[in-house]
Amino acid sequence: VVSELTSLEHLKLYTEVADLTPLAGLTHLKTLDIQETTDDVSPLCGLNNLEELAIRGDNTDVSVLSTLPNLKKLTIRSHSLMNIDSAYALSDSIPGLQLELEGMMGY
């Protein structure tokens, strides 16, 4: 049902999302907040209007999001150190990206 809301600009999902593929067609999204997500965020790579993304995932490789031209803020909620390298790699590839790491032990 969500995949049919193609003009949607803001979306916050409080439930676990096992497959992000239905969100791939929401090309007008500017903000997306997913409380629990799968480790594969690649279906979001075509959301070119996305400016803010908040995700929770312990093994999520966010480096695939480097193709998002308008991404300004990325919040990663995780307890895994696996996210740090891909998050910093992403911040290097997107100038001015505001990166927030929540729940990372030692950070």
Structure, explained:
The chain has one helix and five strands. The protein has 107 residues and is α/β, with parallel strands linked by helices. The longest helix is centred in the C-terminal third of the chain and has 12 residues. It is globular.
Compact summary:
The chain is of the alpha/beta class and 107 residues long.
Provide keyphrases for this structure.
single chain; 107 residues; alpha/beta; 5-stranded parallel beta sheet; 1 helix; 11% helix
The oligomeric state is: single chain
Head-to-tail CA distance between termini = 38 Å
- List the total number of helices: 1
Low-pLDDT parts are none
Overall residue-averaged pLDDT value: 83
- The overall strand count is 5
Write the layout of secondary structure elements.
Blueprint: E1 10-17, E2 31-37, E3 52-56, E4 73-77, H1 82-93, E5 98-102
Parallel strand pairs: 1-2, 2-3, 3-4, 4-5
